[in-house]
Amino acid sequence: MANYRGGRINEEVRKEVSDIIRNDVKDPRLNSMISVTQVSVTKDLRYAKVYVSIFDNNEDKKKENLLALKNSSGFIRRELGHRMNLRYTPEILFELDKSIDRGMHIDSLLNKIKEK
């Protein structure tokens, strides 16, 4: 039964962080659509690496949104601690998830091959 604990914690943290970003963070720099794609919490529950996908065409705006998320990580950690009953509230580390961009690039390459 202990094998599933890590996955359950990761998924619950992902849901809560996504809800906090969507509803509670009032930073005006967060003007793009942000999706939490994956969360990886360490076994000792000290750190949580949160992978976010930012939907914006401008790279500068993506970096600005990621910086705003990193600056609000203390607030998100506090809210997460209030919502979840864990021994330790993990420190939030935000990472930009580029898997959607890579998938779109591969799809465009496949379409070019298909046209030839």
Description:
With 116 residues, the protein is an alpha+beta fold. It has a single domain (4-115), classed as GMP Synthetase, Chain A, domain 3 (2-Layer Sandwich). Helices cover 52% and strands 21% of the residues. It contains four helices and three strands, in the order αββααβα. The chain has helices spanning 5-23, 59-71, 73-83, 99-115; strands spanning 33-41, 47-55, 91-96. A three-stranded mixed β-sheet has the order 1-2-3, with helices on one face. Strand 1 and strand 2 form a beta hairpin. Helix 1 (5-23) packs across helix 3 (73-83). The protein is globular. It starts with a helix and ends with a helix.
Q: In summary, what is this structure?
A:
The chain has helices at 5-23, 59-71, 73-83, 99-115; strands at residues 33-41, 47-55, 91-96.
**First-last Cα distance:** 52 Å
Number of helices: 4
The computed structural class is alpha+beta
- By CATH reckoning, the class would read Alpha Beta
Whole-number count of domains: 1
- Classify the fold: give the CATH topology: GMP Synthetase, Chain A, domain 3
SSE topology string: HEEHHEH
Gyration radius, in Å:
16 Å
Numbering strands along the chain, what is their spatial order in the largest sheet? 1-2-3
Portion of residues within helices: 40-55%
The total count of strands amounts to 3
Which word captures the global form? globular
Low-pLDDT windows of residues:
none
Name given to the CATH architecture: 2-Layer Sandwich
Let me know the CATH homologous superfamily. K homology (KH) domain
Major β-sheet, in short? 3 strands, mixed
What is the beta-strand fraction? Answer: 15-25%
The residue-averaged pLDDT reads: 90
